[in-house]
Design a protein that fits this description.
alpha/beta; globular; seven-stranded mixed β-sheet; two-stranded antiparallel sheet
Length: 232
């Protein structure tokens, strides 16, 4: 049984690596894997604050020089930030993760050990999309998207006090909310390109807070949890 986690960089490195969170997170994953030798987990890691700060710096420099920032270049900056976060997680699970960090989700054919770590791939595709591709490749039927929000809302609750949390939503309705275009560094519960692919596959995605370790354990153990389920 393969489980796929799309781990938001914002919870791994909100500014710098969150050591306390990573300690609790890795212990929880190890405990879950130990419960069944047949369990395997894929973690695709985002870039977090370092990615956005470097992308912002690039855009400001372009603006000051009267140039237009390239989405392609901004994407590469964000992708490179994922490499460091992924290598950190790979090191934390070194005894369970004999594979090298995956940089191209279409390439790995062998999943040795119980843990596989992946980083960003190429411009135009987020780590959410990479997670969906790896779920397809290794026959997982669910991706758990861990970020700094507990649930998907009808609107941004920081800007709209009337925004409502959503427990369950169809892919059609979700895509109406997030649109169909990918913008590097944009904050969305699950990116539009990944959403279109997941809808086509009939994949289930759970969006939940990665910081809530007990809730993550409930998700992994298929118990009642706090979060938003997106499926057909």
């Amino acid at each position: 049984m393969v489980t796929v986690l799309s781990v938001g960089g914002s919870i791994v490195a909100p500014q710098t690596p969150d050591v306390d969170f990573l300690r609790q997170f890795t212990l929880a994953i190890r405990e879950w894997l130990k419960g069944d030798a047949g369990r395997k987990i894929i973690m695709v890691v985002g870039g977090g604050a370092p990615a956005r700060s470097y992308q912002d710096a690039y855009r400001k420099i372009c603006g000051q020089q009267g140039a237009t920032a390239s989405d392609n270049e901004a994407d590469w900056i964000g992708i490179t930030a994922t490499y460091l976060n992924a290598q950190l997680l790979k090191a934390c699970f070194a005894d369970l993760c004999p594979n090298s960090v995956v940089y191209n989700p279409t390439e790995p054919s062998i999943f040795a050990g119980q843990v596989l770590i992946a980083a960003g791939w190429k411009p135009g595709f987020s780590t959410d999309y990479d997670a969906v591709l790896l779920a397809e490749k290794f026959s997982a039927n669910c991706v758990v998207n861990l970020s700094n929000i507990e649930k998907v809302y009808t609107d941004d609750p920081r800007k709209n006090p009337d925004a409502k949390p959503i427990d369950k939503i169809s892919w059609d309705k979700f895509i109406e909310m997030v649109g169909t275009e990918w913008t590097p560094g944009k904050n969305l519960p699950f990116d539009p390109i990944a959403s279109a692919k997941a809808r086509k596959m009939g994949l289930k995605v759970i969006c939940a807070s990665g910081k809530n370790i007990e809730n993550l354990k409930n998700i992994l153990n298929e118990k009642s949890f706090v979060g938003t389920t997106i499926q057909a």
